Amino acid sequence: MSRTTIQINHFGVLPRLGLKGPGVARWLGVQSITTPSDILSAVPIAGDAWIARLAAVEYLIEGNTDSDLVSDLRGRLSPLPSGILLIPRCDVTFLLAGSNARSVSAQTCGIDFRLAQPQRLVFSRVAGVSCGILPEVTNGLINYRMWVELSYAAYLWETLAGIVTELGGMIHPQTDTCSGPHSLS
Amino acid sequence: MKSISCPINGTRPLQEFQYGGEVREMPDPDRASDEIWTDYLFNRRGEPGVTREWWYHQPSGTWFIAERDIVKDEFLRTYLYGSETCDE
Amino acid sequence: MSRRLPPQPGEWIQRDKAVEFRFEGREYTGFQGDVLSSALWANGINVLGRSFKYHRPRGIYSLAGHDANVVVEDRLRSNLRGDVLPIRGGMDLRAVNTGGGLAGDRYRIMEWLSPFLPVGFYYKAFHTPRRFFRFYEGLMRRAAGLGRIHVGARADMSRKDYAFCDLLVVGAGPSGLSAAIAAAEMGATVLLVDDQPRPGGSLCWQHLDAPESRSDLLEKACALPNLEIRSNTQAAGWYADQWVALVDDRRLTKLRTRATLVASGCIEQPAVFHNNDLPGVMLASAAQRLMKLYSVKPCDRAVVLTANDDGYLAALDLADAGVVVAAVVDLRPAQSCTPVAAEVAAHGIEILKGQAVYEAVVSRSKNGIAAAVVCCLDQNGQPRLSSARRILCDGIAVSVGWAPNASILAQAGTRFRYDSQLQQLAPHDLPRGVFAAGRVNGIFALEERIADGRQAGLAAVAFLGHQIEVPASVPRSRTAHSHAYPIFDHPHKKNFVDLDEDLQLVDLLNAHQEGYDSIELIKRYSTVGMGPSQGKLSNMNAVRVVARLNGQSLDQTGMTTARPFYQPVSIANLAGRRFHPYRLTPMDGWHRQAGAVMVPVGTWFRPEYYATKEKSRADCVLEEAREVRRGVGLIDISTLCKFEVAGPDAARFLEQIYTGRFARQNIGRMRYALACDEMGYVTEEGVVARLAEDRFYVTASTAGGEAFYREMQRWAIVFHMNVVLSNVTAHMAAINVAGPRARGVLAEIAEVDIGATEFPFAHVRDMVVAGVAAIVMRVGFVGELSYEIHVPADKAAGVWDALILAGRNSGIRPFGTEAQRLLRLEKGHLIAGHDTDPLTTPFEAQLDWAVDMNKSFFIGQRSLRIHAGRPLERRLVGIAFAYGYLGELPEECRLIVNRGQIAGRVTSIAGRTTVGGPIGLAFVRPDLAEPGTSLCIRVDAREMSEAQVVRLPFYDPDNTRQT
Fold it and tell me: In this complex, do A125 and B8 lie within 8 Å of one another by their Cβ atoms?
């Protein structure tokens, strides 16, 4: 990955598990998954995945196409234990990376990413569309993991990839074999 | 553009929010006279001073209450509905 | 004739880079770094533009971006200001607002007509007769004084950026630089903007021999990594919560700063005297800019009119440049004598104290001046004509006062007060987080400006929360740098107050006499300050005139309101990149490949119908509908809003949101759900499916569902309900398979038995369809045997393909929104928001059956009780036209007329149907709602049509088809 420019990756719909309810944290504990203590924070977990705490009793796990973590967990949720709800989560994941990544957000998002902390979730609007953004540090650089509802993904990709191209960056559209850099190191 | 501080998501530009009107107490529908009920439906306070308002942070789907000085157009504080007593 | 001077220290031009350009069809040469005005002036050109109304010749006046009469255009761009337009090789420019060119402008005749064009002429003359408006409009547009819009020009995409900083400093002069440095040294992230091409402000042209020079300050500034300097960037507008629009030639930046420090300096103000507008008369600061920045001699023989030391400094600069300074005319009385005056006297320059320029004498060519008429002032400050004396000159440099460049401060809410020591306005009350420094703050001496900048910069940093000691503020200057009334009336002659709009002193006097005595009214009536420079050179004098006419102080008279933008901003900059979000369903690609005609529905795109070769739209729609009636069709309904409502209070919550009952709804059953607002009017409808004791799956309309969900969220909070709401609209896609053969198609890919007894009408099942976990509902929207299959959005395209494959032998075909609307109309289903309006009660819409008034509470119930006690005003009924009706059909929303009175309106209509003749839905007066009643429906202005009220539904009244 070039350290001086921008690139954007389209990961498609990664395996995701949305859980809500008073029983979630305990159940995840039983599965040996430590939940983040703060609301709107995210931590990496085993299986090249991460878990985010969206609200007091709402969690989201995003895995990788190569890993079975999410489908394993899903299997263990049938029948659904009490105090747990499965929330359908069909978002598309983009990864905006490179040292110049902020010049993309400068044109599309009204919040100050200089102040964004790694592994703190930001819900904002990008190019007019509601998005979740997770800044993560990889190799000393801040990358931005973004999710957008599947229905808006074509629009947002077209817009962001257009801007990245204009800025001389690289775009990596979705491919069937696509599995991105996934560490939250 | 104004900034509004969402109690969950922090300070964001106005464009991320939607206004939800004044906070009003619904009169008991079984006891209220037609006059009181229609007053609740159709009349708004709107007087200069501090109002309590509903605001919605769209990207995260969060409703909260803002106390706003509508003369100075200044947000005084924001909090989740029902939590004003524990605030500060 | 060249007026170019030998190289000057610090000049902005690059002499080794000659630039050739065209102006008014003629070739000229300038240097890189020249602006149009300086390059033309260097070439000996005096007339750079024509004035707005009288088409008088105009030249350089401010050379600071306020010369609103030197406006040019090229083949693409219009309304470019010559005094700030950098020249580039190959430019081909012409002046706007001329009749046949600048030199021979045939509209010069306006000058002779001027006695017939008093103030307010347009308001008085062009309002009657009405039928001439068109003609007047053409006249006015031609006379509007601005350039042409080149409609064929390519739209430049200019980007818009968001940016953030701790402190914005506006103006990179000595005080701005010093403020930015002081703040940045304390660790704040500082953005310093200046509209000039180079930072330094007046240090570039006024204080070249300053002790702490421009280069010292710049060196310090550049060494600070947290201080960014943007030249050529104007702070165009200040908005709520420190949101500032910055405009440069490429983009608009939307800056969110935490504090704003304005060090924008002052704008030099003109004196009012006869012919004060002619080329050759210019502000002393313009003459200095011309000499120091562009190395151009303003004139050969100058008179300096002054009321402060700045004029004397300018006189010295002029003398240095080889200009013969014929006299310094000082408005101030004789007793004042400053060191700089002594220096001027030492140069052998005549100093005329207590005198004024009363008139500039027009030269023989009419394109400049030949002399200044100078008079002594009496004790009222008015010229004594008996003392008039002519001084030959071709230039008058005017330095009689300054006005704070207050635009950004005023927009931020700063109040100004007239400082009678300074004889000018100064900030009085700064809003929180807004700071001022330097000349805009009423501080004039260079060292004090630098100290004031530092003080304000540190005060801003302290405001940002740094624990630092802020030095005491620098006191305002004690000596007046402005004259209290530099206005000398030459009766019956032109004395200009506003050069932009050709407003004369007499116009203000007349406006005042006509009763316009407040500054805001005079502004609007006379248009003073409403020209392109927005009064930057005229408001101050206008206020002085009005204050004197009213016998008021300047504070009592007040200022006009400052609004964005500081300078005109191109529309391309405002437009920026356009974001038009749209939503696609997972099957979007399939639809387009299948020839679907896509229509926008809210932000979504949906197939309206699937086009077939050589078939009309109506034929395609009807065929799709017929296929559903006799075989099987499928439609992508992913755009429906879909919610999950779960938790111990879920059923109770739904009972309060919707008008119907859900508490005793069996698991696995679905019900129609109708919602009203608090006023009892229909807002939403959909279905509620019970998946578990404490879990419901709810659908709502594409158009209104998102807003409805927000309201559900809010009510859940207000009702203190223990429910979990999830909007799964984009996470779940949905497909409706409908038609007599639907069961057979679904059975092929469903992994459970879906026979009529196993899965009856109005039931819901979790099942696996084509290998995907799905929620399947037996609904009846289109009036046939029908299944709604809801699956995770990323799996939906596969399920769709599987259905197409499974239905191949049954002749399955997709149908679009048009066919769906026809089918539901035939079945008599209304669409909320289409067949209802925001004031429709369920009773009017014949939805009484969906409302349970006996529940303890639901939203709208209290109001519906009131509605129920009143007679109905209208009812929604089915209407049918005679079978084989050949006349034109009314469109939706056409009126129903009964004995000359409006008696209702059509809400839905379909011409070709699967049930016979044309049908529709309509609101009618209750007395016309009985089946069999004849209705007259307006088709257009002339034609009426006739239809009959019929019982709903039109299709399958016994519901045999959908069960």
Answer: no
Chain B hits for A125, CB-CB cut-off 8 Å, are 15-16, 58-59
pTM: 0.91
C692-C695-C700-C704 Cα dihedral, nearest 10 degrees: 180
Q: Are C162 and A110 inside 8 Å of each other by CB? A: yes
**Residue C365: alpha-carbon gap to chain centroid:** 45
Residues spanned by the domain of B21? 3-81
C433-475 pLDDT per residue, tens: 999 999 999 999 999 999 999 999 999 999 999 999 999 999 9
Of B13, B29, B61, the CB nearest to C713: B61
Query: Whole-angstrom Cα distance, residue A166 to residue C812?
Result: 45
Q: Answer whether residue B28 is part of any domain.
A: yes
Closest A-chain CA to C586? A151
- Exposed e or buried b for every residue in C276-307, given b needs 16+ CB within 10 A? bbbbbbbbbbbbbbbbbbbbbbbbeebbbbbb
ipTM entry: 0.96
* Residues near B35 by beta carbon (within 8 Å), at least 6 away in sequence: none
**List of chain B residues whose C-beta atoms are within 8 Å of the C-beta of residue C727:** 61
Please give, rounded to a whole number of angstroms, the shortest distance from the CA of B58 to a CA of chain A.
7
Domains and CATH numbers, chain C: 1-154 (3.10.20.440), 159-267+403-463 (3.50.50.60), 270-400 (3.50.50.60), 489-572 (1.10.10.1100), 588-638+731-823 (3.30.1360.120), 641-727 (3.30.70.1400), 871-963 (2.40.30.110)
Is residue B86 in a domain?
A: no
Any chain A CB within 8 A of the CB of C250?
no
Q: Are C671 and C665 in contact (CB under 8 A)?
A: yes
Q: What's the pLDDT tens digit per position in C9-64?
A: 899 999 999 999 999 999 999 999 999 999 999 999 999 999 998 999 999 999 99
Judged by CB atoms closer than 8 Å, whether chains meet at A107 and C726 is answered as no
| pLDDT at C679 (0 to 100) | 97
Indicate if the pLDDT at residue A178 is higher than 70.
no
C804 touches chain B (CB under 8 A): no
Cα–Cα distances (Å) from B11 to A97, C162, C422, C482, C640, in that order, read 25, 15, 42, 45, 32
Count of domains in chain B?
1
C322-335 mean pLDDT: 93
**Which residues, listed in sequence order, are joined to residue C242 by a DSSP beta bridge?**
none
Tell me, what's the pLDDT at C65? 94
pLDDT in tens, C915-943: 988 999 999 999 999 999 999 999 998 89
CATH number of the domain enclosing B48: 3.30.2270.10
Answer yes or no: is B62 within a domain: yes
Whether B87 maps to a domain, the answer reads: no
Distance, in angstroms, between C241 CA and closest chain A CA?
14
Cα three-residue angle C251-C257-C262, rounded to 5 degrees: 90
